[in-house]
Amino acid sequence: MAEPSSPTTTYSAPDDTGHFGSYGGAFVPEILTPVLEDLRAAYKTYKDDPDFKEEFRHHLREYVGRPTPLSYCERLTEEIGGARIYAKREDLCHTGAHKINNTIGQIMLATRMGKERIIAETGAGQHGVATATVCAKFGVDCVIYMGAEDIERQRLNVERMRLLGAEVREVTTGSETLKEATSEAIRDWVSNPDDTFYIIGSVVGPHPYPMMVRDFHRVIGTETRAQLREVEGRETPDAIVACVGGGSNAMGIFHPFLDDEYVQMHGAEAAGEGLHGNHAATLAKGSPGVLHGAMSYLLQNDEGQIELAHSLSAGLDYPGVGPEHAYLRDTERVTYHPVTDEDALQGVKLLSETEGIIPALETAHAMHLLPDLARSLAEERGDDAVIVFNCSGRGDKDMDTIAKHL
Fold first, then answer.
1. pLDDT for the residue 5
2. Per-position b or e across 110-138, b if 16+ CB within 10 A of its CB
3. β-sheet bridge partners, residue 329
């Protein structure tokens, strides 16, 4: 298949200050202000540079393994009934998840900016593995911050990072998960602003990260348009479904379709034990505030203190969400749904037993939305209705957790 081009779009968020409506922006210590200004200038220079774009496409094609397939899920469609269901197979990317798209782009920027050291944060470990991978490929020193609880439930990925030459620093404060790992990475960055580049793993953090990470992942949706044209004779599905923690895989597949009002978009966030128990359902139960350099929806108490998040999925166990998702929630362009741990486990079984694909627990949250959506779309739009769900990662890393709870 020829490499697809990005569709023309009138959707233009964020504005020049990095705001998606009232969300986003850059709330950082003064010492990081010039660092972010340098990053914004570098990204503005290189994002449209022909040599940069060609090298990025080369790495995606020759190293990441793009384009990833858009697979028709015949047995899943028969099992559920209703709309035809396709999976965008980001689990087949090198390292096993969509995260590698973004890390390739960011390390290309880092080397052009003369940075000699990379730091990153990780929850489920896939962003850490992707960062360690590109650091090995580009020959750059790498430090990964990871919470102690996440190290315990993602040991396979920890060993992969170490084998790739990265130093994994255990974080033992607070909930010992992604929020604390992110805070420690920011502290490192503040202490070493001159030689260190912080590769953020989701569409969170201060401007320009939410925009930049989204742009590097936009290839997911752009490929989907071209592949649908080949298999269905049209570029747009009736609905797109993706999981949302920080929200990078979702923004990657949503963004090229935001102008297509006909296309429904659904995000699945982690409701953990349920909305009246421990959860990470930021968009359902959170309120606006500032965390890790940006304004967005957060889980916080009446005094503005961040509350602990909970999800069986380490990748969704975060008390915030990307600011663009907050904007899309408020404008009702995307509908977000809370999905419990138990529902996600049933999603793992459903995709495994019907298609022979063991999804990551993150992806399994999106799976839970498919049955009701497939049937309602078929009633509304007929038997030709099409759903695409983003299979954002494979479940190898989660097997200990899945085996323990399923």
1. 65
2. bbeeebebbbbbbbbbbbbbbbbbbbeee
3. none
Q: What percent of the chain has pLDDT over 70?
A: 98
Does the CA dihedral 101-102-103-106 come out positive or negative? positive
Report the pLDDT value the prediction gives residue 3, as an integer from 0 to 100.
Answer: 52
Write down the catalytic residue from 19, 59, 73, 93.
Answer: 73
CA angle 239, 245, 250 (to 5 degrees): 30
How far apart CA 291 and CA 173 sit, in angstroms, is 17
Q: In sequence order, what are the residues at sequence separation of 6 or more whose Cβ sits closer than 8 angstroms to the Cβ of residue 394?
A: 91, 92, 96, 97, 357, 358, 359, 360
Q: Both tokens of residue 51?
A: 């040599």
Q: How far apart are CA 273 and CA 360, in angstroms?
A: 18
Residue 177 tokens read as 């998960």
For residue 151, which of 181, 130, 131 has the smallest C-alpha distance? 181
What is the helix (H) or strand (E) element at residue 108, kind and residue range? helix 99-112
Start-to-end CA distance of the chain, whole Å, equals 39
- Which residue has tokens 């570098």? 42
Q: What is the pLDDT of residues 123-165, one digit of tens each?
A: 988 999 999 999 999 999 999 999 999 999 889 999 999 999 9
Question: Which is catalytic among the residues 19, 59, 98, 368?
Answer: 98
Q: Can 93 be counted among the known catalytic residues?
A: no
Active site residue 279: no
- Residues, the chain: 406
| Six-digit token string for 29 | 């210590």
pLDDT at 175: 87
∠ CA 103-106-110 to the nearest 5 degrees?
A: 130
Residue 391's Cβ-side half-sphere holds a number of Cα atoms within 13 Å equal to 28
Note the pLDDT tens digit of each residue in 370-402: 999 999 999 999 989 999 999 999 999 999 999
Within the chain, which residues score under 70 in pLDDT? 1-8
